[in-house]
Amino acid sequence: MSADPRVSIHPDSSVLLAAIAARLITKLVDTQDKYGDATIVLTGGSMGIGTLRAVGDSPACAAVDWSKVNVWWGDERFVEAGSPDRNVLQARQALLDRLPLDPARVHVPGAAGEFATADDAAADYARQLADAAAREHVADYSDSRPDEPGPLPRFDVLLLGVGPDAHVASLFPEMAGIRETGRTVVGVENSPKPPPSRISLTLPAIKSSGEVWMLVAGEDKAGAVGLALAGAGTVQVPAAGARGRDRTLWLIDAAAAAKVPGNLLRKEPASA
Ligand code: 6PG
How far is the CA of 17 from the centre of ligand 1 (A)? Predict the structure, then answer.
């Protein structure tokens, strides 16, 4: 089961990032109240990294018990560990290095230099996910999620940016990764966006998350957003397939919302 998309539109990207940060802090605090810990899946791009900066700028940042937050990435560029292209490095610089995270809860996809190929790093990341799932004792939990391609820990909130071509994570239109159903993680070669080698969660792994938040700003994204929300095919429009089990939230600015189908725009209550 996955949740139909809901759309929340903010006037511009800076208001949007502040609103996303406020929601995210609340989500993490609420989840920790429920489970004791919380698991977030991060993304790169200007919205993913901007969100982390906005969380750090918020006075409520310290309301989260960061020592009990599990951190994963939805995708990573397969480059050297010290490359400024690494989503992990950008996230550390934007926020993570300033938080009292437990290093054992921060799960980093492998880099070039550590693994020969993106496929090897993807297999290692899938193993990290399987180990975390085992630690959570999710055998019964997995049994109740037969649509999943392999063992996965509980993801509470998974963040995604959307490319102008409607890619999410490193799942690009018409490429092998977006068609993958048998694995939790894939290596991606010949990405249309540089760098060419990447590691990505697959769509079934993304859809295992309780909540999936799509973070999108800018008029160059309006076409992709419109197609995704109109229910286009997932192979052509990967963003159309990204959904959470309980909630799928599109957090977008007015420019990116220009082509949102009218039935998804919030209606004003009828006046009495
Ligand atoms: C990458 C980027 C990319 C990005 C989207 C959305 O790996 O090349 O991370 O996938 O997340 O294109 O980008 P924005 O957040 O900048 O809109």
Answer: 15
